[in-house]
Amino acid sequence: MRLLNWLAPVLSIVLISHAYSTVHGQGYPPSMPQNGMIQPVSFNSANVPGFFQNVQSSMGAPPPPPNFFQAATGGYGAPGMPGIPMNAGTQAPLNAFPQMSPFEKMFQQHRVDKNGLWSYKSTNAGKKYFFSMEALFARYQNPGGALIGNVGSISYLDLVEDELIDATDDEFFDQFSENEGLNYFNAAHYNKVPKLNAPGSRLRWGWTNDDQSGFEFTGWWIARADSSWSAIEDSTHKPNPANQAIMDILLSPPNFIDPTGTGVVSSIPGVTTAEINTILQNELMNLAGLPLDDGTVNGVTVPYDLDFRVKVVSQAWGTNATWMSTPFVDKKALKIRTLAGARYMQVREGFGFVGVDSGLLYSDANNIAGIRPDLKLFSLPTGTDENEDGIIDNAGVVEDDDAGTGTSTAFFVAPVDPVTGLAVTPTTTYVNSKVDTNLAGPELGIQFDIGGDKFKIWGQTKVGIMANQETIELEGDNVGMIIRADPDDIDRPKALIDPTVDDPNPNAFTDRQTHTHVSPLFEQSIFMEMSLFDKIPVLKRMKLLEEAKFKFGYTYIVAGEIARPFDSIRWQGMPTRGLFPSINVKRESWSVGTWSLGIDWLY
Q1: Are 446 and 460 in contact (CB under 8 A)?
Q2: Is residue 575 assigned to a domain?
Q3: Which residue intervals of 108-259 are DSSP H helices?
Q4: How far apart are CA 394 and CA 387, in angstroms?
């Protein structure tokens, strides 16, 4: 006969040969108890009561040597004779360690359920590690709908009300003042800035213990979001690329706009005065205004007719370590546990403003009566060419389809400083504000898990008190009423300082502040995990995805008492009188929401 499985008969023979042998799990105990050892009961004739000694004598058996184990007894009779040891020599102690135990590393948990019954749970799995990688799709909080500039300053329309009526009529002014949809260098608001979207990534690593407590480390990073808005986007007419070469000459020193106040444009080789007049009507735009506190009761609004742009920048990253407790609610499909940890997070935000003005004052040539202060006359911004001159919403001309008002010729002039004889030239205003915020501190929270191994929904809710260290920086140049040139004018004094060789940027300014305070923080996240890859034909064969799960979720973080760069500006501008923009700290909430897609591994 041929045995195909040789191990079974060999083991059977070994077991049969030892069927009548006494097998001891450990060696015999020592003669004297030792510290840390377990001393079993052993036979000693000196300790046997007289009754048992008489029984042994009647049986003719000599007293056994000490430290021999008592043999098993049967029924209810007297104890049997001591057994004969199978080995001789020095005996080892009965010690629970380091001998092998069937319960080694076995986690046990005993608890009383709410129904009064004891429950028992055991595992020998040890730590279970997890690791996840996620792609983030984030949206930072927008600046909101606050005004860009000083709140409470007079609008540009009200600033030039008298001059505009003198150049046109009351009815023309009323069409602007009674219709909010018609822009006349109106102030802009931050809600013009598009959404701040950016990609990012997140890594999560940690472990859970046998009692389902654990620890996790999380690190995330979101790219910088740049979002900008230009008033040209909302303008009813756009610059014509065919005119840019001539505009570059007109707006570059020396100034080709005649500063004598006659409205005559100096000649440019190959270009007639009429052509230059038409180009200016088309290229100068009714964009937006910047309200400023210039030290007067009503303030001013600076008009910009060449460019008006704002830009907002946001970026954030962070890391945190979290300890997870044993669940205090532990059902078959629901677990709730507490969280405690620490977090560090950095938020970097910036704001930039750029405005370019030609420095020109302009009006209708038929109605002009000298230079009207601060006035830049524009047709109603309807987006149509009412007088059919090929220019939509002319600068310096009031379009009228009935030909009752205005002409096709405009009057352009650059104001001149009567003291220095210098004319106002095209000027660029810029303001940059930046805030770096560092948050660090403890946080507490809870985590819930719903579901099982194949499909689970879980989330975390955390609150923290963060130490906030912030640095605010502000810089800029040429913030003031550009189109004013007379320093001795009582009502409309010159605002900007003329540059010199020794000081080419006399209107530039900088400011910097550092603060430390406390900021509250709240984070809410919810995730969905499912065993998905084992159901996809190609992916289920990949070794890397055998223990992986698909992960999808959303996380929202909001921190309070955060200085925002666009709100922390004191919008004042009158350099000739020492007024420059400065830092005026205003704190509000900051938040970011992120959708995430990723893979979670258990190992």
Answers
A1: yes
A2: yes
A3: 156-159, 161-167, 170-177, 244-250
A4: 10
Cα 464 from chain centre: 16
Only one residue has tokens 């921190």, namely 559
The pLDDT assigned to 336 comes to: 95
| Domain count for the chain | 1
pLDDT at site 256: 58
Q: Which among 221, 471, 170, 492 is positioned nearest to 344, based on CA atoms? A: 221
Q: Please give the pLDDT value at position 403.
A: 46
The answer to whether position 475 is within a domain reads: yes
Cβ neighbour number for residue 587 with a 10 Å cutoff:
17
Cα–Cα distance measured from residue 527 to residue 216, given in angstroms and rounded to the nearest whole number: 16
Q: Indicate which CATH number applies to the domain containing 493.
A: 2.40.128.100
CA angle 290, 296, 298 (to 5 degrees): 60
Domain that holds residue 139: 126-149+187-237+285-360+414-602
Residue ranges of the chain with pLDDT lower than 50?
A: 1, 3, 36-43, 45, 48, 51-52, 55, 68-69, 71-72, 74, 83-84, 86-89, 97, 403-405
Strand boundaries in 141-252, DSSP class E: 196-208, 214-230
Which DSSP helix (H) or strand (E) runs through 283?
helix 273-283
Furthest-apart CA pair in the chain: how many Å?
151
List 593's β-bridge partners, or say none: 139, 556
The answer to whether the beta carbons of residues 164 and 172 sit under 8 Å apart is yes
Q: Could you give the CA distance from residue 454 to residue 429 in angstroms, rounded to a whole number?
A: 60
Q: Please identify which residue in the block is written with the tokens 């008190």.
A: 465
Whether 571 contacts 291, CB under 8 Å: yes
Residue 596 lies in a domain: yes
**What is the Cα–Cα distance from 495 to 472, expressed in whole angstroms?**
26
What confidence score (pLDDT) does residue 28 get?
A: 52
What tokens appear for 493 in the block? 């004094």
The SS3 of residue 539 is: helix
SS3 595: strand
CA 535 → CA 454, 542, 549, 558, distances in Å?
12, 12, 11, 38
223 domain residue, yes or no: yes
The span from the first CA to the last CA of the chain, in angstroms, equals 48
Alpha-carbon radius of gyration of the chain: 44
Q: State the DSSP code for 423.
A: B
Q: Which amino acid is located at 196 in the chain?
A: L
461 close to 341: Cβ distance less than 8 angstroms: no
pLDDT at 42: 47
- Residue 407 CB neighbour total at 10 angstroms: 16
Q: How many residues does the chain have?
A: 603
Give the residue from 509, 523, 515 showing the smallest Cα distance to 563: 515
Q: For 154, how many CA atoms within 13 A lie in the half-sphere containing its CB? A: 14
Q: What gap in Å lies between CA 396 and CA 409, rounded to an integer?
A: 8
Buried b or exposed e, range 553-579, using 16+ CB within 10 angstroms: bebebbbbbbbbbbbbbbbbbbbbeeb
pTM value? 0.76
Q: Are 342 and 462 in contact (CB under 8 A)?
A: no
